Amino acid sequence: MFVERIKIHKGWKDAETNLTKKREAKVKLELANKTDKIPQATAEVKEVREMHRIGLIVGVLILCCYISCGP
What we know:
Order of helices and strands: HH
Number of helices: 2
Number of domains: 1
């Protein structure tokens, strides 16, 4: 179980980093007034945010299973 938690945590941290990069890219597009690319950037941020949320939920579920089942 611990190995699975480590994998999930790494994936979650990667998604967190990716989310930050996508948000920064979106802000740069907004500041550059590139309105043609903003909807795509918004969709990418939403997609990465959803992956981040799912990773967090899975991590919590694994932790709950670990606590209830024991090591």
